[in-house]
Amino acid sequence: MTALLEVDTITKRFRGLTALTRVSFEVARAELLLVIGPNGAGKTTLFNVITGFAQPDEGRVMLDGRAITGLNPHAIVGRGLARTFQIPRPFKSLTVAETVDIARPSKVGTVIGALGNSGIGTADQVLELVQLKQRRDEAAGTLSQGDLKLLEVARALATNPALLLLDEPYAGLGPGEMARLTQVIMDLHRAGLTLVIIEHKLRELMRLAQRVVVLNYGEKIADGSPADISRDPRVLQAYMSGHKAAAHA
Amino acid sequence: MLPSRYVVLAAGIAGLALLPLWVTNPYYLSVLTLAALYAIFSSTWDILSGYIGQLNFGHAVFFGSGAYATGFLGPHLPPVLVFAAGAIAAAVFAVLVGLPCLKLRGPYLSLTTLVFPLILERLAFTFRGVTGGEYGITVASPLSPIGLYYASLALLALTLAVLLRVANSRIGRTFKAIGDDDQAALAAGVNTTRFKLGAFVLGAALAGLGGVLYAYHLRHVGPEIFGLFTSFSIVIMGIVGGMGTIIGPALGAYFLTLLGESLREVETFRILIYSSVMIICVMLFPHGLLGLGASLHHLVLGLRLAREPR
């Protein structure tokens, strides 16, 4: 079976600074992949390139065997690839339910249908999934940081993705909210959604992830099972050398 | 909340429809017609500027092209086709203006929209053989003044009904989402380009219909329609009335048109007073005339708090 997502030798430069250098990896269907790396390693840039918010200087991205490099972000969403933003970007004029309702669902995703009844889920189904249903009529801008993060996930899910990219979904969450999010991620994973997650809070996800890709200074330095990664000397060195704070995460 | 807005709208239009029973002076009637037309222009401006947040300083391009279409085609076509031509001309300009503006945001977009009416103003001077240059074109109205008043009012009612219907639908909420954060809207799978162009075309086509009536009303169309003051007036009406509400800008248009006309006797100070009212409105009533109640409530609360000893 071919990989659902194929990142093929991506290079991205910003005015002489190389943010990503020939990064390649694949994501299999129904896999949960963790992307880690110290601050500034290029993780968010990688997400931006995959989702069409930034164009790579070299390389290409394939989704389900078709190139998506150069497509508009909304068209990529239509192909079944959704994302969240690290810092929540709520629609301040809309309520929680309206935020989910304006999302344009793709035809290729199966997750919402698998979790709900059949076909594409309604706004309420998606909100129930992330446990935001009781907030449905509140203005999106007035939510707590934790709820905003979950609303990011809900909006992405409402596009009915086959592949979901989460950019530091745990950042800024309290312990209870983290448990909620872990439950959501586990449910989605179990339902067959393919997930790629950028995260610092390793302990939460190391147990869930099947594979880990490690970036450092824009280069992939490791790619393997969580157990292998945590013993990899290059990974340990990347986290130890001047990135002590990140090592505690 | 939602139905009440339509009830208020229907009551307002009905009230305006009854006005000619008392207002028999032809001058006052013509001012009321003008106010209705400006209400069409400012509410159509609002769908792009208030909802998607693309502050458009060149709305005159749209009703101006409708008015010029009337000047060019009025003598040759029946009125129905003139209206169609006005709407189509405006829609074509909406695409022409909209396409280069899609990638622009904030002040860059506003400055770009500002340039278009100035270009058309220049063109009107340049091709004087067709446009009559600074003298413009004389337009014959197929309607009597009272007929024009009711036609304008009917078009205003239609415009507000259509815009409110769109604004309160999923499309309108998508417009608001794009206005809040267009990157996040893209991430939600929204084709922001199509929606922005759609808002341009919808607002422009309705404004173009208004432009036809505007030309009939003035019995003339000239390059001054593309002047800066015309376009600025629309922006001011929209802001004073309350952006992103459709009804608000229409209210603002009535308020400022009637204010402007009542200041005719002090012509020298007209723009000064006009601008002062706008500054006061923006400072004290950030949600416009439509949000006046809430704003006053906040103001009183604020004053009371300020007076309380710490």
What does the model show?
The complex is a heterodimer of chains A (249) and B (310). With 249 residues, chain A is an alpha/beta fold. Chain A has a domain at 5-90 and 163-247: Rossmann fold (3-Layer(aba) Sandwich), CATH 3.40.50.300. Chain A is built from 11 helices and 10 strands. Chain A has helices at 43-50, 73-78, 96-101, 111-115, 123-129, 145-157, 175-190, 202-206, 226-231, 233-240, 244-247, and strands at residues 5-14, 17-27, 32-36, 58-63, 66-67, 81-83, 163-167, 194-198, 211-216, 219-224. Chain A has a 6-stranded mixed sheet, sandwiched between helices. In chain A, β1 and β2 form a beta hairpin. Chain A is globular and about 50 Å long. Chain B has 310 residues and is an all-alpha fold. Chain B has one domain (2-226). Helix content of chain B is 75%, strand content 1%. Chain B is built from 14 helices and 2 strands, in the order ααααααβααααβαααα. Chain B has helices at 2-18, 26-51, 60-73, 79-101, 106-126, 128-131, 145-167, 170-180, 182-187, 192-218, 228-241, 247-262, 270-284, 292-307, and strands at residues 137-138, 220-221. Chain B is globular, with a radius of gyration of 20 Å. The two termini of chain B are 38 Å apart. The mean pLDDT of chain B is 88. The A-B interface holds A 51, 53, 72-75, 77-78, 82-85, 89-94, 98-99, 101-106, 155-156, 158-159 and B 170, 173-174, 176-177, 179-181, 183-193, 244.
